[in-house]
């Protein structure tokens, strides 16, 4: 029997009616002859509402208690989903993270899965039940406390269950039709991909594509789990994220050099101005930055101005890490010996991603030419084996994406249909 | 060190502000040098809202999933309460029913506590933490599933924790000031009792007094737990429910023959008309009634009418059990051979309770005289060792209570202050 893991996000189970619709879809998968395990998020805005309550009670909620609080959200949605399925005449049982054997480290709010021991789920599947598991949550063996996985947690739960149970497929249901060549809100002619390799998906997710969380893609890639991203609002087949080593039979891989163009407006740039151009200074700066847990993305060191013996070092990081990083660097001003700090949160990042870049020449030339023709100024550049990213002004990144999308012949013949709620 | 268990109901933790107020009260108990364990209900109307959601999803929610769903309510309130206390600088940890070792049978929705194994709570107390436990919920060892205790569950959780941990006192915080000689909404001159014996409390609770659930009182009585019922909205000392064998030092026991007058408007009367007056017929009727799990209270068999050889049998039961009992009896009409069924939901029950009845004579005479003087017609009578109950018309039971309250010299000199929310 085929085993399929399905994940439904909060917008797919926002109210009683959506829960019944999702239950029907799960039952259809079961009727088609599959074993089904479901990972489910909290209903709609439940998690945000609970967070809000916590902050009404105390300004800095204790992490252990916050996890206890937030984990109740999935408990509600999973129980409702299981009873909806049972109401349709199919056996279903819901399990919390700890009941499902989702063992994590003890980092409340951002726990890492260290082991999955789905004994009870195997028993339930063996007895013919549809299994519903709370996404986003786990359990630490040493403290015996409940943990939550943080951002992207429910996707990761689904992938981890698929890996541990040896599932044939992990379907991520969301409110968009699949993975597109670019964000359809910015690039109207974005085309849905039928397939994308996991390494390309990883680079796209890391570059700002929001449909799948990078952590789930990494987990899937490491454990060879095949993902299918699809909409819970229609029957579109969605996009398969495949491991190139295990290409699904009959899969038509896209012909383009570039799989997609990603846009990211969540980054800011810090420039450390007038740094003494002597060995070890850059190391000193990034040691301080690392101490704040800020997630540095791109780094550029300008050519030193001979007359002053000083240079500028710029790097990008998530805007949410900006304040703490500025204050840590500010406190080390005398130690590092720089002149000033500049903070710029009006930047945009555009990335083109494609596995075929490895064997294709001229990709960067084509990219820069397209940007030049569109009059877009490039401020920073980084490349990986299958990705080129550039920083532009925030207000020109959409225009840049349009130009690049056309230049790499990714445009569809018609505008993409953007569904309500497409924003996650 | 003194160990105090405190229970806070849903109306005491209805929003963030109430949770902070309750947290402050718990911290004050701690500051006074006590170890504190708290059992908490779900916030305000959470349980009803979750039940409503369940019924929106499916008409007959599966009991296992309903328990999974409802148990999330206390998880929310307990985590918020623990973080509020931590926010005030005191160590606090919340525990679910299963983490607290609340072991129950497998009856979803009305589980019985079979064992309490509070290993983690003892550890936490030993480490100086204030312990917060989810009321109303437990865990079955065989099915490894979460259960809920049903009505009166959170009070019972508190009492069971007090018994298992050998607490010195179990305080039940509620929205009334304590136990009164009668319901202050019906009897304005009702007086708050400083003390009441557990057997009297048990009879009052069984007779319709709603402040404490009979199940919690029984558990406390069986395990020798001293209860204090008090308001979470003021500092009134409340009412101590004591085991007469362990009367608290300096306790002033009330002088009255009668501890209280209870009113119950939740009952209905079924009369089986024209029953053949032959041996075994009553047994047949009550076997059928027992089969519906209806909770029969009073039974009256009229004197047989010689001419017909037939008699009437009347009994009272909760209105909520009325429909199923009528239909079970109706289906057995030919088998039993009765003529018709009458259903009367316009009855009221008045009970006077007092341990001193055992040694006082004339209590029933005084009761009946008071009712006669007030022009109240008595329809049925039952007595226990320390209680006399009568059935009257529903619309005269309040007037009856006033008359009896005065006749037994229970009236206070002033009207009782009824606080907002007094209705549970």
UniProtKB/TrEMBL annotation, chains A, B:
It catalyses: L-aspartate + ATP = 4-phospho-L-aspartate + ADP. Pathway: Amino-acid biosynthesis; L-lysine biosynthesis via DAP pathway; (S)-tetrahydrodipicolinate from L-aspartate: step 1/4; Amino-acid biosynthesis; L-methionine biosynthesis via de novo pathway; L-homoserine from L-aspartate: step 1/3; Amino-acid biosynthesis; L-threonine biosynthesis; L-threonine from L-aspartate: step 1/5. InterPro entries: AceGlu_kinase-like_sf (IPR036393), ACT-like_dom_sf (IPR045865), ACT_Aspartokinase (IPR054352), ACT_dom (IPR002912), AKii-LysC-BS (IPR041740), Asp/Glu/Uridylate_kinase (IPR001048), Asp_kin_monofn (IPR005260), Asp_kinase (IPR001341). One of its GO terms (molecular function) is aspartate kinase activity. SUPFAM superfamilies: ACT-like (SSF55021), Carbamate kinase-like (SSF53633). One of its GO terms (cellular component) is cytosol. It comes from the Bacteria. Residues 270-346, 352-424 form the ACT domain. ATP binds at residues 7-10, 174-175, 185, 210-211. The keyword Nucleotide-binding applies. Substrate binds at residues 47, 74. PROSITE patterns: ACT, ASPARTOKINASE. GO terms for biological process: diaminopimelate biosynthetic process; homoserine biosynthetic process; lysine biosynthetic process via diaminopimelate; threonine biosynthetic process. Its EC number is 2.7.2.4. Keywords: Amino-acid biosynthesis, ATP-binding, Diaminopimelate biosynthesis, Kinase, Lysine biosynthesis, Nucleotide-binding, Transferase. The keyword Hydrolase does not apply. Catalyzes the phosphorylation of the beta-carboxyl group of aspartic acid with ATP to yield 4-phospho-L-aspartate, which is involved in the branched biosynthetic pathway leading to the biosynthesis of amino acids lysine, threonine, isoleucine and methionine. Belongs to the aspartokinase family. This is Aspartokinase. The lineage of its organism: Bacteria, Bacillati, Actinomycetota, Actinomycetes, Micrococcales.
């Amino acid at each position: 029997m085929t085993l399929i893991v399905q994940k439904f996000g909060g917008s797919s189970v926002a109210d009683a009616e959506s829960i019944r619709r999702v239950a029907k879809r799960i039952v259809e998968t079961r009727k088609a002859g599959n074993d089904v395990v479901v990972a489910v998020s909290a209903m709609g805005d439940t998690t945000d509402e609970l967070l809000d309550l916590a902050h009404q009670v105390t300004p800095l909620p204790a992490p252990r208690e916050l996890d206890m609080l937030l984990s109740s959200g999935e408990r509600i949605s999973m129980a409702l989903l299981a009873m909806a399925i049972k109401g349709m005449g199919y056996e279903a049982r819901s399990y919390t993270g700890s009941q499902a054997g989702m063992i994590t480290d003890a980092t409340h709010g951002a726990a890492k899965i260290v082991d999955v021991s789905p004994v009870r789920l195997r028993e339930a599947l063996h007895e013919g039940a549809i299994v519903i598991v709370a996404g986003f949550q786990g359990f630490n063996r040493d403290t015996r406390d409940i943990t939550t996985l943080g951002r992207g947690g429910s996707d990761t739960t689904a992938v981890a269950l698929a890996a541990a149970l040896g599932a044939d497929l992990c379907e991520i249901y969301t409110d968009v039709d699949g993975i597109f060549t670019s964000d359809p809100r910015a690039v109207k002619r974005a085309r849905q991909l039928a397939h994308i390799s996991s390494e390309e998906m990883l680079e796209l997710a890391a570059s700002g594509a929001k449909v799948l969380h990078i952590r789930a893609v990494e987990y899937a890639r490491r454990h060879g789990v095949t993902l299918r991203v699809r909409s819970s609002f229609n029957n579109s087949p969605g996009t398969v994220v495949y491991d190139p080593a295990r290409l699904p039979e009959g899969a038509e891989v896209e012909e383009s050099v570039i799989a997609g163009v990603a846009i990211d407006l969540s980054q800011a740039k810090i420039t450390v101005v007038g740094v003494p151009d002597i060995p070890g200074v850059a190391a000193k700066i990034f040691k301080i930055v690392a101490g704040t847990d800020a997630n540095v993305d791109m780094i550029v060191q300008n050519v030193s101005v001979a007359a002053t013996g000083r240079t500028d070092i710029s790097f990008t990081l998530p805007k949410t890490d900006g304040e703490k990083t500025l204050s840590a660097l500010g406190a080390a001003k005398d130690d590092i010996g720089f002149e000033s700090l500049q903070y710029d949160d009006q930047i945009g990042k555009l990335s083109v991603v494609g596995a075929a870049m490895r064997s294709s020449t001229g990709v960067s030339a084509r990219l820069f030419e397209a940007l030049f023709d569109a009059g877009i100024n490039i401020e920073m550049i980084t490349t990986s084996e299958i990705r080129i990213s550039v920083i532009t002004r925030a207000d020109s990144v959409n225009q840049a994406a349009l130009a690049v999308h056309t230049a790499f012949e990714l445009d569809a013949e018609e505008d993409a249909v953007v569904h309500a709620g497409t924003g996650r």
